Amino acid sequence: MTARAFPCALGAVLLTLALAGPGRAQTAGPSPTPDHMPKPGMSAPEMADRAAGRFPQPVRVGDLPGRFLLQPEESQPVLGRVTGLVRRDDGGADAIVRLDGVLGLTRLGLQPLAWSGVGARLVAVPVEAVALLGEYVALMGMTPERLRALPTFAPGSATAIPPGETLRIGIVRPFH
Amino acid sequence: MRSPFRPLKVPDPSILDDHRPLVRQIERRGLLRGGLSLGALTMLTGCDVTDTTAVGRALRAVSDFNDGVQAALFDPRKLAPEYPASQVLKPPRFNAYYDVEDVKPVDGEAWRLELAGLISDKRPWTRRRIAELPEREIIIRHVCVEGWDYIGQWSGVPLRAFLERVGADLTAKYVAFKTADDYPSSIDMASALHPQTLLATRYAGQDLPDPYGYPLRLRTAVKLGFKNPKWITAIEVTNAYPGGYWESRGFNWFAGL
What we know:
Chain B: It holds the Pfam family Oxidored_molyb. By secondary structure, chain A is α+β, with helices and mostly antiparallel strands.
């Protein structure tokens, strides 16, 4: 090996170690999903069962619109914004959530600018699938993928629950 | 090709001869070794604070010094801001060192508040007897060490009134708490006697719901959130440092606001 080739080879080895080291550690195996995170494909009774264990607390319906819906992971990403609550056919309640479209500003945390971007749409999420986290709401009963796959909710297609009514919704601690 | 970084005028080679013993001591490995111990030092912040190494003791000493400064700055007559009822968050935020699904509700009828230490009347208290004591309501900001906060409306007997009633030694250093969820905690006597420190039994006018500490919890406006133990089962007045759940894991003990 020539004197010039040696430092090059050493540099290449160091670079490989630096790049491959953490990469290998990450692909060693998936870390176990924390217990509070939603299991994929929970049925409605399973969701209700988990929700009942979260000590449902009374909350005024009028206090919910405008709250961010958070994903239950450490960085607490914003998934959308609650716009209101409607009565389901089975007597339960759905939270209507506006999902961001392209260029949605909700994710940036710009609360005064409620514009959710081009192609924003509403979906109906069973209240059993959410929990109250202080002044936020967290998605506990379904994965973000399932939330985004929900059919679009047409405003006026269900009876809105008046703001003065009180519902009982489970609570959850912060995820960080 | 000549390196562009090579100076046009090189130093006199005799300089190297003058400093040869020093140059022989310089090793690249030294840099690696130094880097490693620097890394070890940063890792120590997550260590057990009972760590007996010199670094552990030094970090602990700085933390204790900070506690002393906070205690010296604390003004027992200065009130924390209070807020209008319209700003109260209902229900309040829940937090604990475990998930809400693991909360074990306390049976209010069987519950007793035990007293220990420098207290003359150590008879245990029932919910009914505590409800007969004078009550105060405060609407204060709960500030968590994690960085979030909310405004809550708490009522209950001021801790000062309770300590006076049971004949506690108000010159003692510490008031310590034991809880049903195994979350020991303690505060300094000056904060315990502060008018905005309550043994809270109600939130927003209702009995405390189970996950927020029913039947009795501490709520003080002059400390961070983690200094407000829930589901209190025993109070001790003492001069021996009692520590606490997070304090034994490296948090500051005084944790004033």
